[in-house]
Amino acid sequence: MKIFHQKFKLIEQLERLRKLGSDVGFVPTMGALHEGHLSLLKKSCLNNKVTVVSIFINPTQFSSSTDLSTYPNNLKEDCRLLKTISDEILVFAPDSKEIYGDKMYVKSYDFKGLDKFMEGEFRNNHFEGVATVVEILLNIVKPDTVYFGEKDFQQLQIIKSLKTKINIIGCKTQREKSGLALSSRNNKLSLKSKKVASNIFKNLTFIKSNIFNYKIEDLRNIVSDKINSFDQMNLEYLIIADEDKLVPTDSINYKKKYRAFISVFVDGIRLIDNIALN
Ligand code: PAF
């Protein structure tokens, strides 16, 4: 397995491979890899001659320093998991200086309202940080195709709005048997909290099954009460919004596609999830 800490070495290697006619697939991550990431990597390996994964915990997208400092970080274990897919994957594991130079920065963007609700509302400047680092990474790797999970659906739509010429593929959220969406943050949950957290997906499927049986406002109230009835859970938001503009709605227009988006603190750990409704 080839690990690159310096971008110029990765760029050189990719230039060599591209001259041989290789197409490049890319999976940007912050490490703490799980089956969700591995499914993106499997897709990339299947469809591209060369696959690059970046492992970089991007400080500029965290709103809280505790969240950043407690984010799981284990490159050795990540590489072990990557090897189970392919020894050929190129791993890019830079430090902050390699990405940002001497001074960390975030660019300003007009996301045309895609960042107004949900994560954009509750995590200050989160998407500026994400877009900045994704643009930097895409400029280094210059992939033909880049893969993102739909668990971060708002992130996926925001990255698509950057209008890069790169093929951007959104991939289905991977879940535990209980329905809990796979996330690096699940590592912080006890077995008991994990069990309680599986109610997040149960409630999302309840919304999907009942979207035409109740008024949206009533459905939101029912599910909010159900979530908050667990001592360990605290709902941050539950929003039904259209997939294209990500604007919350109180009624379904049959011509559009909608998703329910949720954020819940489970024993203090913030988990997000979403489900396609129609
Ligand atoms: O989804 C993530 O893991 C991160 O937001 C990303 C896209 C790697 C940017 O740091």
The biggest beta sheet reads:
6 strands, parallel
What structural category do the secondary elements indicate?
Answer: alpha/beta
Q: Assign the CATH class of the largest domain.
A: Alpha Beta
Bound molecules: pantoate
The CATH architecture of the largest domain would be 3-Layer(aba) Sandwich
Runs with pLDDT <50, length 5+?
none
Widest β-sheet, arrangement of strands: 1-4-3-2-5-6
Residue-averaged pLDDT: 97
Order of H and E elements: EHEHEHHEHHHEHEHHEEE
N-C termini distance? 42 Å
CATH topology of the largest domain: Rossmann fold
Describe this structure in words.
The chain has 278 residues and is of the alpha/beta class. It folds into 2 domains: 2-171, HUPs (Rossmann fold, 3-Layer(aba) Sandwich), CATH 3.40.50; 184-276, Pantoate--beta-alanine Ligase, Chain: A,domain 2. The chain has helices at 7-19, 35-47, 65-69, 75-83, 96-100, 119-122, 126-141, 153-160, 191-210, 216-228; strands at residues 2-4, 24-29, 50-55, 90-92, 145-149, 167-171, 233-242, 258-266, 269-276. Helix 9 (191-210) packs antiparallel against helix 10 (216-228). The longest helix is centred in the C-terminal third of the chain and has 20 residues, at 191-210. The protein binds pantoate. Residues 28-30, 58, 61, 130, 133-134, 152, 155 line the site of pantoate.
List the helices and strands and how they pair.
Blueprint: E1 2-4, H1 7-19, E2 24-29, H2 35-47, E3 50-55, H3 65-69, H4 75-83, E4 90-92, H5 96-100, H6 119-122, H7 126-141, E5 145-149, H8 153-160, E6 167-171, H9 191-210, H10 216-228, E7 233-242, E8 258-266, E9 269-276
Parallel strand pairs: 1-4, 2-3, 2-5, 3-4, 5-6
Antiparallel strand pairs: 7-8, 8-9
Helix pairs in contact: 9-10
The chain binds pantoate (PAF).
